Amino acid sequence: MSEISLKVDIIENGIVIDHIKAGNSVAIYNYLKLAELDCVVAIIKNVKSKKYGNKDLIKIESTMDIDLEVLGYLDSTATINTIKNGKIVDKKSLVAPKRIKNIVRCRNPRCITSVEQELDHIFEISDEHGKLYRCVYCKQEAAERGNRILFE
Fold first, then answer.
1. Is the pLDDT of residue 15 over 90?
2. Does residue 102 sit in the same domain as residue 89?
């Protein structure tokens, strides 16, 4: 069986979102609305990684503002690399934010946010590992991160 090699060109100027948990790249792609960009965007899934086993990454041949807090909620293992002239000029590691506001909706139909439409949807980390978020009003767990409902 022959080995197939995939070549993805380097980015001269843009952003690389690296160390994405395997399988999370499509959710990040959708959240960032990368389909709307008029530039090269590459999603590379299940890349071998010494640190994580497998990982995803997204290459964007353009600069854009990225809400690091939201991205930290989506995938706190990811890193954001800013590329200029083919070199990494800035690297940011993400962390899971302690509190998120208007990123996900509370799914409890009895929550005050279901009745008071203008009320902010606020969730806080409720475990020491930063994996579980709960609504500050009713204590409902946020939907599994892979199945989240994001605000537009």
1. yes
2. no
Same domain, 19 and 88: yes
Closest CA to 91 of 105, 101, 81, 102: 81
> Would residue 9 count as lying in a domain?
no
Q: pLDDT at position 131, please?
A: 76
Closest CA to 90 of 9, 19, 16, 21: 16
* CA 50 from centre of chain: 21
Strand ranges (DSSP E) for 38-132? 41-49, 53-60, 79-84, 87-93, 99-101, 122-125
List the one residue out of 130, 65, 132, 119 whose CA is nearest residue 95: 130
- For 5, other C-beta atoms within 10 Å of its C-beta total 5
